Amino acid sequence: MMYNSIITDYLIHFLRLHDWFGAMQKQKEDCNMDTRPVTVFEPGLGGSANYRIPSLISTKKGTLIAAIDARRDEPGDNPNNIDKVIRRSTDNGETWGDIQLLVDYPGRGRKEGSAAIDPAMLEDKETGTIWMIYCHTPGGIGLWNSSPGTGFDSNGYRLLYDESGNIYTLREEGEVFDASGKKTDMVVDRGGNVYIGNDKIGNIYLDRGPLLEARTSFLQAIYSKDDGLSWSEPIELNPQVKEPWMRFIGAGPGIGIQLTSPRYKGRIVFPIYYSNNPDNGEPRMSCCLIYSDDHGTTWKRGKSPNDGRVWEGSILDSRTLSIREAELTESQVVELDNGDLLYFMRNHSSKRRTAFAYSRDGGETWGEVDFFDDFADPICQSTVIKYPDIGDGKERLIFANPCHETQRINGTVRLSEDGGKTWPYSKVIDEGNYMYSCLTVLPTYEIGLLYEGRDDKIRFVKFTLDWIKSKY
Question: Which among 242, 245, 358 has a CA at the least distance from the CA of 300?
C-alpha cells in the first residue's frame, strides 16, 4: 500500500509539472502576458451607480467568479443601499457573463438603504461548495455607528425592537413573540416585510418602522453548490462568531483559504475584523480568522493578533483596545509549506507599512505583529495568494497593493520565492488610481488580478511569473 501511494504521489507530481511547463510554453508563445485590462464592472452597468470591493476566485471547474459591492445610488460605504452581485467567466477572463444578483436588501440611498457590503469568497476543494461572507447592516447603520451586540438572543432568535424600545424575537415561520414569550399578531416574511394580517406595516431592515432588527452589524454567509450559478439564502454567523461587546463585524474583504497541512486539513478560514466598545473613547478595530472544520456547518472565531500583543511595554486585548495606532483591520492570509499561516494586515501605524504575523495553530492564535519594511501602504486593503507548487523547491507568494505611503495609487504586484522571507521581484500594474484588489491563479497558471482602477472601473488583468521577474 505504501509503495502504491508513493507511485501515485510521483505521478501527480509529474502531471503537475507537465501541465505547468505546457502552460508556461504557451505563455511564451503568446508574448508572455496579456496586460490589456478588461473592465468587469463600471458605473452605470446593471443600473448601479458604482461598484467597489472586488473578490475573485478560480474554481476547480476553471470558472472565474468576480464578486463585488453594487452600490446602487452612490459610491459610499454603508449606510448605503449595497447589494452583492457576481459575474462569471469560463474563458480565463476574456469575456464575462451577465450580472447575477445574490443579496438585495431594501431601501435606497445613504439614509435608509440597508447593505450587504465587502465580499470574501473561497471554494471548499473537498466538497466543491463556494462560500461568500459579507457584512450586513440595516438602514442608517455602518461601521462607525453600529451598536454593541450580536442581534440574537441566547436561543439564536433574531431580536426585534418596536418604536418604544420593546424587545421581540423573530421565530420559526416568521412568527413574532414579545418579551414575555407570547405570540403576537405580527409576521415577518423572508424579505423582512412586517405584516399584520394582509397589511404590510414596515420592514425590519429599514431605518425606521414599527419593528426593526438590532442597529448593529451582522456577519452573513451564502454558498453555491453549482459553480456559482445559484446561491443559498443568507446564513447568520453572528451567534457563532460575534461577542456582545463587539460593534462592527465585517469580512476580509477578498478571499478565504482552505488549509492543507495534516493537522488542519480541510479547515476553511476567512479573515474578518471587528470593533470593540471601550468604556472611554472611540471604538477600535482588530482582525482575526473565523474557521470551520466541518465544511461550513459550524464556525469558530480565533484570537486576534492584538490579543496579547506587546505595545510599548503594555499587553493589548482586542476587547479593551483604545490605541488608534495599534488597530489591525482588513486582512488576508496564506498557508505556508510548513503549515504556518502568514497574515497580512491593514493597520493604522504611523509606519505606513503592511503588518504581518504568524500562526502555528491554524489561525487560532498569533505571534507578535511586525511590519514589511518595503511594503509602503496608504492604509488600504491588500491581496495575497500562494502560487501552486511546481516542484522546483520554491515557495511562491504573490502580493499586491497600492504601493504609496499617502495615496491609493501605483498598484504594485510583488513575488516572493521563499515563503515571504524576501520579495526580490515587483512590477507596477497601474501607476494611476489603484485601491482594493484581489488575486487568483488561473487554470493556465497565469495570475489574475481584479482591482479598483481609474474612472471607478473594476478591471481584470492577467500576467505570468516571468513577467513579474522580467526587466521590461
Answer: 242
Known catalytic residues are 77, 330
DSSP letter for 147, please. P
C-beta atoms surrounding 54 within 10 Å = 27
The rounded mean pLDDT for the chain is 94
Strands 158-161 and 130-137: unpaired
Identify the DSSP state of 103: E
State the residue for C-alpha cell 521581484: 425
Measured in degrees and rounded to the nearest 5, phi and psi for residue 324 equal -60, -45
Q: How many CB atoms lie within 10 A of CB 17?
A: 14
Q: How many CB atoms lie within 10 A of CB 318?
A: 27
The residue among 160, 143, 234 whose CA lies nearest residue 202 is 160
Q: In this structure, which amino acid lies at residue 206?
A: L
For the entire predicted model, the pTM comes to: 0.93
464 vs 23, 269, 392, CA distance in Å?
10, 27, 17
What are 239-283's pLDDT values in tens digits? 999 999 999 999 999 999 999 999 999 999 999 999 999 988 899
N residues, the chain? 472
Nearest to 269 by CA among 366, 368, 393: 366
User: Which of 277, 11, 287 has the alpha carbon at shortest distance from 147?
Assistant: 277
CA 182/CA 417 separation, integer angstroms = 63
Q: What is the pLDDT of residues 17-56, one digit of tens each?
A: 455 545 444 444 443 445 689 999 999 999 999 999 999 9
Q: Tell me how far the alpha carbon of residue 33 is from its chain's centroid.
A: 28
Whether residue 460 contacts residue 36, with contact meaning beta carbons closer than 8 Å, is answered with: no
Q: Burial level of 76, CB count in 10 A (0-12/13-18/19+)?
A: middle
d(CA 408, CA 378): 6
Asked if residue 233 lies in contact with residue 190, where contact means CB atoms within 8 angstroms, the answer is yes
Longest dimension (CA), the chain: 73
Q: Is domain 37-150+216-469 classified as CATH 3.30.70.100?
A: no
Q: What is the CATH code of the structural domain delimited by 153-213?
A: 2.40.220.10
C-beta neighbour count of 88 within 10 angstroms: 17
Closest CA to 385 of 266, 293, 257: 257
* Alpha-carbon span 430 to 444, nearest angstrom: 23
Are the C-beta atoms of residues 469 and 447 closer than 8 Å to each other? Answer: no
Cell of 417: 520565492
Q: In this structure, are residues 251 and 135 in contact, taking their beta carbons and an 8 Å threshold?
A: yes
Q: Is the dihedral of CA 207, 205, 50, 249 positive or negative?
A: positive
Q: What DSSP letter does each residue of 255-271 carry, written as one string?
A: E-EE--SGGGTT-EEEE
Per-domain residue ranges of the chain: 1-32, 37-150+216-469, 153-213
